[in-house]
Design brief:
Elements: H1 5-10, E1 18-22, H2 27-37, E2 41-46, E3 64-69, H3 74-84, E4 89-92, H4 98-101, H5 106-112, E5 117-122, H6 137-144, H7 163-188, E6 192-197, H8 198-205, H9 207-211, E7 234-238, E8 244-248, H10 252-261, H11 278-289, H12 294-301, E9 308-310, H13 314-319, H14 321-325, E10 329-331, E11 337-339, H15 364-370, H16 375-383, E12 387-388
Parallel strand pairs: 1-2, 1-4, 2-3, 4-5, 5-6
Antiparallel strand pairs: 3-12, 7-8, 8-9, 10-11
C-alpha cells in the first residue's frame, strides 16, 4: 500500500484499543493475538520469571508487550487495578473465583472503570457444576456433545488436536465477544463482563449439527454418515507416494467430475447416495488413488470442480501456489512462518507485527510509565518485588 508501518498500524480497525491479557495457556493468548493483529495495544501481564509457573508457553504473543507482576502481593494486585482503570479490555483466563480472591473481580474493576470490558475465558464458564473444575479441550468437547460426533466407524470418538474447543470455541469466540462489546460500548459508553465458556463456544460452533439432525444427515452411527467419513466421496485417500488427497464431491455435478477423473464410468456404478454400496465404493476409490502420486492426481483434478485437493503438510501449505498468490502466510524477523490474520479487510486490514515475541517483563517500565506511574513508584514496586524489570534504568 506504500504506507509506513506506523501509518499502517494506525489505520487498523482496533487501533487505540488498550488490552490487558493475563498470561495463560492456548485460548487466551490466541484471543489477545487476534486483537493485536487487528491493531489493539495488547499488554501481556506475566508472572515474574522466577515463579515456578511463569513459563506459560505463549507462542501466540505476536504484537504484544510484557509487564511482569506478582499478583499475589498486594502491591502487584494494586498495579493491575491501576492498569485496568486505564484499559479498555481485560482478558482473564483463570478458573472461577481466582480473581475475586485477589480482589480483582469484575465488581471491583468495573466500579473503578465502568467502561472496562472484562472478558472471562474459561473451559466450563463462571457458573454450573464444573465451574471450578480443571479441564482441557477434550473435556470441553465431550461436555458440548461435539466429541460424540467425531471419529470413524467402529472406533472411539477422537479429538482433532486442540483446535475446536480451545481455539475456535475459546479464543476466537472470546475475541468475537470482545469486539461485539466494544461496538455496543460505542453506543452506551458502558463496559460489561463476558462469560466465555469453551464448552458453550464449541457447542455454538456446532449449531449446524444440532439443527440438521432432522434432515437425515446424522441418522447413521458415527462414521457412517455423509460428512463424517461414511461416504466414499467425502473421504481422504492415500496416494502411491504415501501422501493423501482430500475428496469432497458431494453434489452430483461434482461427483460426476470425480468419477471422470478417476477413469470410471458413472453408468457402471451404483447410485451415489446408496449407503449400501458406500463401503464397496470406498475400497474401489482407495485402490485407484493408490495408483498415482499426489502430484499426478493434482494434475488431473486441479482444473476441475471435482472438489479434490492435496492434503498439505504445514510446511507445504505455505509454499502452495494458491496460498502464495494470496500471501496467506507471513514470515517474521526471525524467519518463522505463520498464517496471515484473517479475514482480510479491504480498508483497514490487519498488519501483524514482524518482531520477535516479548520476554517476560521486557516492557514493564515502559508500560507503567505510559499508564501514569512515576519512576519513583516503579522503583518502589521493584524493591518490593511486586514487579520485574528488564534493563533496569540506572536512574531508578
Amino acid at each position: 500500500c506504500g504506507r509506513s508501518p506506523a501509518a499502517a498500524a494506525a489505520a487498523m480497525a482496533l487501533s487505540g484499543v488498550r488490552v490487558l491479557e493475563l498470561a495463560g495457556l492456548a485460548p487466551a493468548p490466541l484471543c489477545g493475538m487476534i486483537l493485536a493483529d487487528f491493531g489493539a495495544q495488547v499488554v501481556r501481564v506475566d508472572r515474574l520469571s522466577r515463579s515456578a509457573i511463569s513459563a506459560h508457553g505463549d507462542v501466540q504473543a505476536r504484537g504484544k508487550r510484557s509487564v511482569a507482576l506478582d499478583l499475589k502481593r498486594p502491591q502487584g494486585a494494586a498495579v493491575l487495578r491501576r492498569l485496568c482503570s486505564g484499559a479498555d479490555v481485560l482478558i482473564e483466563p483463570f478458573r472461577h473465583g481466582v480473581m475475586e480472591r485477589l480482589g480483582l473481580g469484575p465488581e471491583v474493576l468495573l466500579q473503578e472503570n465502568p467502561r472496562l470490558i472484562y472478558a472471562r475465558l474459561t473451559g466450563f464458564g463462571q457458573t454450573g457444576k464444573y465451574a471450578k473444575s480443571a479441564g482441557h479441550d477434550i473435556n470441553y468437547l465431550a461436555l458440548s456433545g461435539v466429541l460424540s460426533k467425531l471419529g470413524r466407524k467402529n472406533e472411539n470418538p477422537y479429538a482433532p488436536v486442540n483446535l475446536l474447543a480451545d481455539f475456535a470455541g475459546g479464543g476466537v469466540m472470546c475475541a468475537l465477544g470482545i469486539v461485539t462489546a466494544l461496538f455496543e460500548r460505542a453506543k452506551s459508553g458502558r463496559g460489561q463482563v463476558i462469560d466465555a465458556s469453551m464448552v458453550e463456544g464449541v457447542a455454538y460452533l456446532s449449531s449446524f449439527l444440532w439443527k440438521s439432525q432432522k434432515v437425515g444427515l446424522w441418522s447413521q452411527p458415527r462414521g457412517e454418515n455423509l460428512l463424517d467419513s461414511g461416504a466414499p466421496f467425502y473421504e481422504v485417500y492415500r496416494t502411491s507416494d504415501g501422501k493423501f488427497m482430500a475428496v469432497g464431491a458431494i453434489e452430483p455435478k461434482f461427483y460426476g467430475q470425480l468419477i471422470k477423473g478417476l477413469g470410471l464410468n458413472l453408468d457402471d456404478l451404483p447410485d451415489q447416495m446408496s449407503l449400501l454400496y458406500w463401503p464397496e465404493m470406498k475400497k474401489k476409490f482407495a485402490s485407484i488413488f493408490a495408483q498415482k502420486t499426489q502430484a499426478e492426481w493434482c494434475s488431473i483434478f486441479d482444473s476441475t470442480d471435482a472438489c479434490v485437493t492435496p492434503v498439505l503438510s504445514i510446511d507445504d501449505a505455505a509454499s502452495h501456489q494458491h496460498n502464495k498468490e494470496r500471501n496467506s502466510f507471513i514470515k517474521n524477523d526471525q524467519g518463522e512462518i505463520s498464517p496471515r490474520p484473517a479475514p482480510v479487510l479491504s480498508r483497514t486490514p490487519a498488519v501483524p507485527s514482524s518482531k520477535r515475541d516479548p520476554f517476560i517483563g521486557e516492557h514493564t517500565e515502559q508500560i507503567l510509565l505510559e499508564y501514569g506511574f512515576t519512576k519513583q513508584e516503579i522503583a518502589k514496586l521493584y524493591s518490593d518485588k511486586a514487579i520485574e524489570l528488564k534493563n533496569l534504568k540506572s536512574n531508578l
